Amino acid sequence: MTGLAGRTAVVTGAAHGIGAAIVAALQADGATVHGLDLEAEGELRVDVSDAAAVGAFVDRVGPVDVLVNNAGGVRGQTGRPLEEVTDDDWRSVVDANLTSTFVCTRAVVPGMKSRGWGRIVNISSGAGRSVSLTGIQAYASAKAGQIGLTRQTAHELGQFGITVNCIAPGFVLSNPSTQRQWESYGPEGQAALVAGIATRRLGQPEDIANAVRFFTAEASSWVTGQTIAVDGGHGIF
Asked: 227 with 121: CB under 8 angstroms?
């Protein structure tokens, strides 16, 4: 799939893993890609939940054709009983995953409307369709919120030539957090997890990037408001 030559793309959470793979995929399709991350340097180091910072970045780079909202994660948190979750813990995860998606989408939509073309892809999680395997209430809620925001914005923006879709990845070894989670299962738990995946393998960042390539292609212009589980068939069990 090609056809993004001359297009400008922004990928959030791009420093490693899934985000880095998405950057590489969109570059291969011809786009000029800006990968934002708090671990990046210079003008690419942007807190994507900060509306002023995101607005200033979009003003600098000009109109954005493709936005991939990949930033998020669990912010170093682990599962705890609900009554032990503090307000700050809740807001930290919700801001990183859901508020950032709203803020970045709002910032790029005016430019997309003016040109009558745009592609927005939100990276949710299997936790948004079911439950968080690590018991993080805010993460499951924020990821479910991304799916709802996908539907609502797809309904609103379709008339302007803008599609909005969502990917719910399964278990992908893509960063230190998922590596720690994988190791915590031990050999028996790891075997059980893989046995629950129809393809009998864990996901790779490129698996998610390939789905992004589909949603951003011109050939998918009549596909919007959808959430696709890229999980090796884990969701069918």
From this structure: no
| Residue 236 exposure: Cα atoms within 13 Å on the Cβ side | 9
27 vs 65: CA distance, rounded Å = 13
Is the dihedral angle over the CA atoms 171, 165, 48, 21 positive or is it negative? positive
Residue numbers annotated as active site: 139
Written in H, E and C, the secondary structure of 204-228 is CHHHHHHHHHHHHCHHHCCCCCCEE
C-alpha 223/C-alpha 113 separation (Å) is 18
Q: Supply angle C-alpha 41, 47, 51, rounded to 5.
A: 135
The first and second tokens of residue 127, run together, are 């936790």
232 secondary structure, DSSP code:
T
* CATH classification code of 8-172+204-222: 3.40.50.720
Q: How far apart are CA 226 and CA 66, in angstroms?
A: 17
User: 234 or 24: which carries more pLDDT confidence?
Assistant: 24
CA distance 36 to 44: 5
How are beta strands 118-123 and 66-69 bridged, if at all? parallel
Summarised one tens digit per residue, pLDDT across range 151-195 is 999 999 999 999 999 999 999 988 887 888 889 899 999 999 999
The domain limits of the chain are: 8-172+204-222
